[in-house]
Each structure stands twice: as structure tokens, then as C-alpha cells.
Amino acid sequence: MTDDAYLFLVDDPATPLGAPVTAVGDLACLETPAVRAWLDAHGVTAASPGVRLLPPEETGSIPDRSEKVPVPLSDEELNQLRHALAPGALARVEEELLAYRDCAGERDALLVRAMAAGIPPHRIVELTGEDARTVASVAAQGQGRPSESGARQQ
User: Fold this and answer.
1) What is the predicted pLDDT for the residue at 148?
2) Which InterPro entries is this protein grouped with (predicted)?
3) Residues 58 and 94 in one domain
4) Is residue 41 part of a domain?
5) Cβ-based burial of 34 (10 A; exposed 0-12, middle 13-18, buried ≥19)
């Protein structure tokens, strides 16, 4: 896994892989000389439908033959990208996870709902700031399985 997001090209704009850059919003990296040169070299603009963007944790799904370039994104830009990729229900649960940082109420229920919604544990850890073992323990309890420690961590 890389720490950079990637801009890449898809042959068919109907391909569901990645987010169109226009769906993510204004990105500072689009003004860098490296990205501008990459776009120019491929005869596209950031608004072209075949130009897509994926966050660092998903760049492994970019086809090997695709033209791609790494781009650094701020935390806010990464959140915008992830929201552009998430279907509506997932985006709402992710918003709750972000709000979770400001309050500790109903932690276990929220973590179980996030897992049930299909949000990967690593993403829950990023959004909540919780320890990965805590997320795994609560998820196991929410699925009716005993956790490794046998006790609920708070």
C-alpha cells in the first residue's frame, strides 16, 4: 500500500472503478507541475470522464496497464474522495463515525453498525481514532462471538 492517492485513466468512462475527479471537488494537487504535465501528456483534463482517483488503501485495484500518477492529498481531500466513492448509506455512517470523535456515547453500537454496513475495520479505526483491537473486539461481540479478551474494552 502507498501513502499517496492515484490519478489514473480508464478506457471506458462507464467503468465504476475510482471517483471522477469532478466528483471529489477542488484538489490542490491538480495545480502541481507534475500532475499538469501528466494530464497534458495524455491529452486529458482533470474534468475528463476517464480520469479517476483512488485513495491510498484502494490503489491496488488499479489495473496494471493503466496510466497512473501518485498524488498527495490533504486529510480533508482524502475525506472528500472517500465520500465520493461511498454509496449514500455508507457515507451517512462514515459521517457518524467522524462525529464520534467528539463524543463517546453509544460507541459499541456505532462500531457494530459500521461493520454491518460494510465499512472496513481499518477505515473505522481511521475515522474514530479507536484502537484496532477495540474495533475487532466490539465487532466480534456484535456478531455474537466472544472477543479475544473476553471482556468489553471501553
Assistant:
1) 42
2) DUF6003 (IPR046045)
3) no
4) yes
5) exposed
